[in-house]
Design goal:
binds 2-acetamido-2-deoxy-beta-D-glucopyranose, four-stranded antiparallel beta sheet, Ig_sub2, immunoglobulin domain, signal, Ig-like_fold, Neuroplastin-like
Length: 221
């Protein structure tokens, strides 16, 4: 039974591929075409950055256009203009993200294009030690700005060397979100857990880390 299913599944995927390579002539003509400026990498220099989108072909009447960052409309960018510009005067890591220029037409689906603005992670907040006793649970977190969203890692100093904390080592649980990481330590052990902890955020542009410590507070002071 399963042997006879395989050839038809292959045939279907081949059809889909050739279909997307050869779009119907009518569909291509009506597609709005948007030309964008290049992706941007924000480094240490605070030189202004300008993002551009030009609507170069559309058979539909434009209603309005605006910019979004991470899906949220940027205030005061809404206009009726096919050439769009967005200027970031002093670009910082917190300005990084996925920008879209969005075009709304009078009687046609909206269209958009993406410009990625990348930056190395910057850790903008973290929770330090808590005053906890043996047997209680402790939680530390770090949050970041920067794009693409980072890979997170927690390390603990053991005999002078930072060792990666594994999520399935029993008492340690790590929760990672796009720009947030949380280390939970269950059932604190006075003899093992006090010490120096590091959270490390790494993306394709760079990395950042901060050092922190869990309770019980008077054990490491
Ligand atoms: C968009 O159009 C303006 C005005 O014609 C031009 O100066 C600019 O280079 C264009 N931008 C892109 C990304 O093509
Ligand atoms: C936007 O501008 C175009 C071109 O000038 C015009 O045809 C259209 O009516 C305008 N749309 C609105 C909603 O004002
Ligand atoms: C851009 O277009 C894609 C595909 O139509 C859509 O899924 C997405 O929500 C749009 N994004 C914005 C910001 O309008
Ligand atoms: C973190 O990511 C969420 C979801 O992508 C977003 O809503 C939030 O603004 C981000 N926070 C920061 C500090 O970038
Ligand atoms: C760690 O393990 C917990 C429980 O199994 C799971 O919910 C969580 O997603 C894991 N975290 C990571 C970063 O893999
Ligand atoms: C974060 O960890 C990565 C991978 O181990 C390392 O290359 C990088 O130097 C670390 N970043 C910092 C700021 O320590």
């Amino acid at each position: 039974m399963s042997g006879s299913l395989l050839p038809s599944a292959l045939a279907l995927s081949l059809l889909l591929v050739s279909g997307s390579l050869l779009p119907g002539p009518g569909a291509a003509q009506n597609e709005p075409r948007i030309v964008t400026s290049e992706e941007v990498i924000i480094r240490d220099s605070l030189l202004p950055v300008t993002l551009q989108c030009n609507l170069t072909s559309s058979s539909h009447t434009l209603m309005h256009s605006y910019w979004t960052r991470n899906g949220v409309e940027l205030t005061a960018t809404r206009k009726n203009a096919s050439n769009m510009e967005y200027r970031i005067n002093k670009p910082r890591a917190e300005d990084s993200g996925e920008y879209h220029c969005v075009y709304h037409f009078v009687s046609a689906p909206k269209a958009n294009a993406t410009i990625e603005v990348k930056a190395a992670p910057d850790i903008t907040g973290h929770k330090r030690s808590e005053n906890k006793n043996e047997g209680q649970d402790a939680m530390m977190y770090c949050k970041s700005v920067g794009y693409p969203h980072p890979e997170w890692m927690w390390r603990k100093k053991e005999n002078g060397v930072f060792q990666e904390i594994s999520n399935n080592s029993g008492r340690f649980f790590i929760i990672n979100k796009e720009n947030y990481t949380e280390l939970n330590i269950m059932n604190l052990q006075i003899t093992e857990d006090p010490g120096e902890y590091e959270c490390n955020a790494t993306n394709s542009i760079g990395s950042a880390s901060v050092f922190t410590a869990p309770g019980p507070q008077n054990q490491f002071n």
